[in-house]
Amino acid sequence: MRRTAEESEVKSVKSGQTEMTPTDCTKSGNSPFCDSVILTERSVFMGTLLQDIRYGLRMLVKTPTFTIVAVLTLALGVGATTAMFSIVNAVLLRSLPFPDPDRGLRNVRFSKPEMDDLRTRAGVFEDLTPIFEGSENLTGAKQPERLEAVNASFSYFSMLGVTPQIGRLFGPQDFVPGFASAAVISDGLWRRAYGADPNVVGRTLLLDTDPYTIIGVLPRGFRHPGPTVSGDVDVFGAGGFSGDPFPPPIRGNRVLGSGIGRLKPGLTLAQAQARLTAMAAQLRHDFPTDYPPQAQWTIEIQPLQDTLVGKVRPMLLVLLGAVILIVFIVSLNIANLLLARASGRQQEMAVRLALGASRGRMLRQMLTESMLLSLIGGAAGIATAVGPLRFLLRVVPANIPRLNEVRIDWVVLAFALLISILTGLVFGLAPALHSAKVALFSAIREGGRGSGYSTKTGRLRDVLIVSELAFAVILMVGAGLLLRTLRDLLQENPGFNPTEVVTANTWLGVPNDPKTDPYRGIPGKATFDRELLRRMKAMPGVELAAITSSLPTTNSNPNAVGGLEIEGLAIEDRPVDRIAVFLVRPPLIVSCCGA
């Protein structure tokens, strides 16, 4: 018969005729015997805890099949949850990597005069910079490349608290009415196109044939806080937005796509919005021609964090909820295994009770085993979370912001530890309570007959199985709906036959000075298109070739928009907020697509 180590309880310490208990020591606090009582009590607790840990480890080693299955199951649940939480933490929870990120705001589409009003009349912004986003062709490096570029005012980097790793950033000395000739490049472009050359400062960068001088390289990990056309911004320029190539600064010409500002200290978002609403009403009154009543023009600002992640927040939270549900299913599954294991250990528990073990000590012993199992499984889950994380980063949409900041940091590790502890409590509590409440004589009698399964155990296992199936059904229904949506997308008829159809995008450079544009006007572009078609048709294996301004089912030319005017409708009744998208598609494009 196995000997069971039992705890020694400190009941009292006597001094002469006076009996001091731990409770008396807590109340008095000045007895010379209190230190020894408390120290002895703590020593007993630590000793019994170490005994429980050693005994729990021996029991896990004694049943390797159970331990391996449980650890692998826990690793699956904790690893998937940790990987998903690392994305949620980077995108939704982590503050923007700028000074005072709560004061960062964004508004959209305004003209140069409106930007000046926001700076001087609103009394809201400590600093404000317009953002002019676009794509440009890079030449003069190792190979041509299409880059994302941003032009902003000269205070852009100082407002965001950015310092360069090489060279300098924009300053007042770079100011010009149009575009400055200085450029700051990203760490990625510096490594990709210039081989991380430390002497890159001073070299010439050609964007759409316009020369720019590289004055600095941004630190690794910096990302422009805003949406772009297709990827991270690699080139940053600056300008005054009031000279060539910008049109005359009139109020109705809103060429500036958005702006980033910083609130004045002590000003709340509600107070700032109220001031901007009042200013917009005053501008509508002062310039009724530029702001007709039917346009209902106003100024709205949003926290920078919300503008970046607002659209993806529900999707990420749903995915996080799904993986947490997986952890619940894992917990129920492990609880079922532990309950079956505890049923087979009823005779052992009865013998420990017979030898004098308290039910509280037995409960603590069983919970210790569950916590050890959960911590081992959690450690395995954290170790394997890198794989699921890499998979998620491949399959999630590329337009989700801040994906380059996803990593397993101390916050993610703390979350994984919390999940592991909660999982251990969830799946270990029911089996522990069941084992601690074992009936002494009936357990010995049933154990003697070789039975380890009682009526109460059966009911508890049935509850766990039903709960596990319920959670699994919820996940299966959600997965089925997602698969049906994917099937519908794959089977959707686009209206043409894409088999053996190859597409490519071509961008012609747009220099800042239109006079230097070799493809200026329709004749220049038509000449290029005809030569491009001639060369494509001459390629081996090409049956048909055509050129279009936008590929089917896409809007690959977002600049092909214009105002909408309805014939016979008065100017004041025209929908000023409506635009029309125009496409150039020759008849041959229909044949190429097999439509």
How do the strands and helices of this protein lay out in sequence?
Layout: E1 13-15, E2 18-20, H1 22-28, H2 34-62, H3 64-93, E3 104-110, H4 112-120, E4 125-139, E5 145-152, H5 156-160, E6 166-167, E7 182-185, H6 187-194, E8 204-207, E9 210-217, E10 233-238, E11 256-263, H7 269-286, E12 302-303, H8 304-309, H9 313-343, H10 346-354, H11 359-384, H12 386-395, H13 410-436, H14 440-448, H15 455-491, H16 521-537, E13 561-563, E14 579-581, H17 588-592
Parallel strand pairs: 5-10, 7-9
Antiparallel strand pairs: 1-2, 3-11, 3-12, 4-5, 4-8, 4-11, 6-9, 7-10, 8-9, 13-14
Helix pairs in contact: 1-2, 2-11, 3-9, 3-11, 3-12, 3-13, 9-13, 9-15, 10-14, 11-13
3D structure, described in words:
By secondary structure, this protein is of the alpha+beta class. It contains 17 helices and 14 strands. It has four domains: 1-62, no CATH class; 65-93 and 312-490, no CATH class; 101-309, no CATH class; 514-592, no CATH class. It has helices at 22-28, 34-62, 64-93, 112-120, 156-160, 187-194, 269-286, 304-309, 313-343, 346-354, 359-384, 386-395, 410-436, 440-448, 455-491, 521-537, 588-592; strands at residues 13-15, 18-20, 104-110, 125-139, 145-152, 166-167, 182-185, 204-207, 210-217, 233-238, 256-263, 302-303, 561-563, 579-581. The strands form three sheets. A six-stranded mixed barrel has the order 4-5-10-7-9-8. A two-stranded antiparallel ribbon has the order 1-2. Strands 13-14 form a two-stranded antiparallel sheet. A hairpin with a 5-residue loop joins strand 4 and strand 5. Helix 3 (64-93) runs antiparallel to helix 9 and helix 3 packs across helix 11 (359-384). The radius of gyration is 35 Å and the shape is elongated.
